[in-house]
Design brief:
The protein has about 150 residues and is α+β, with helices and mostly antiparallel strands. It is about 25% helix and about 35% strand. It has helices at about 25-35, 40-45, 45-50, 60-75; strands at about 15-25, 80-90, 100-115, 120-130, 135-145.
Length: about 150
C-alpha cells in the first residue's frame, strides 16, 4: 500500500520520518555487484578478506538502490511527489556488510515554494541510512519537487 498523499504545504522544515527494515544478504550483495559493480571486495569472498574491509561489503550503489525502494514503499507520495532534480553530498560512511539491516531517516531542511509554477515547491532534506547498530552508513542531501494541494491553492 503506498504512503498517504502529502502535499507541499503539509511538509515543514524539521519534519523527520524514519522507516524501513531491509536485510542485506551476502547473496543479494554479490548478485548486485556482479551485475553493476564487480569489484573484488563486492563479489569474491577470498579476495575481499585481503582488503581493508576484511570481507564482502555491499556496493554503495546497491545501498542507494535499497534506500530508493524503501522511500517508494514508505515515504514518497505517488499523488504529489514529482521527482527529484538531484542529490548533493552523497557519502558512503560505514561499509554495509552481509547481515546488516538498513532503515532510512529523512529530515526536511527547507521548503521553497516555486515562484514560476504556483502548483508546486521544492523540499530539501537530508537522508541518512542506518544499520541495526544505529550507525549512519550512507548520507545525502537532496531535493524533491512536490505538488501543492489543488483543493487549497
Amino acid at each position: 500500500m503506498p504512503p498517504p498523499t502529502r502535499w507541499f504545504d503539509d511538509i515543514k522544515p524539521g519534519d523527520t520520518a524514519e522507516f524501513g527494515d531491509h536485510l542485506m544478504t551476502e547473496e543479494a550483495i554479490i548478485a548486485f555487484a556482479r551485475e553493476y559493480d564487480p569489484q573484488p571486495f563486492h563479489i569474491d569472498r577470498e579476495a575481499a578478506k585481503a582488503t581493508m574491509f576484511g570481507g564482502i561489503i555491499a556496493s554503495g550503489w546497491h545501498t542507494g538502490s535499497v534506500v530508493m525502494r524503501l522511500m517508494v514503499d514508505h515515504y514518497i507520495s505517488p499523488g504529489s511527489f514529482m521527482g527529484s532534480p538531484g542529490l548533493d553530498d552523497l557519502r558512503w560512511i560505514v561499509p554495509v556488510r552481509p547481515g546488516d539491516r538498513l532503515r532510512v531517516r529523512i529530515t526536511v531542511t527547507e521548503t521553497i515554494p516555486s515562484r514560476s509554477k504556483l502548483d508546486r515547491g521544492i523540499v530539501r532534506s537530508v537522508t541518512e541510512t542506518l544499520n541495526q547498530k544505529g550507525e549512519v552508513v550512507m548520507s545525502s542531501r537532496g531535493m524533491v519537487m512536490v505538488m501543492r494541494n489543488p483543493e487549497t491553492r
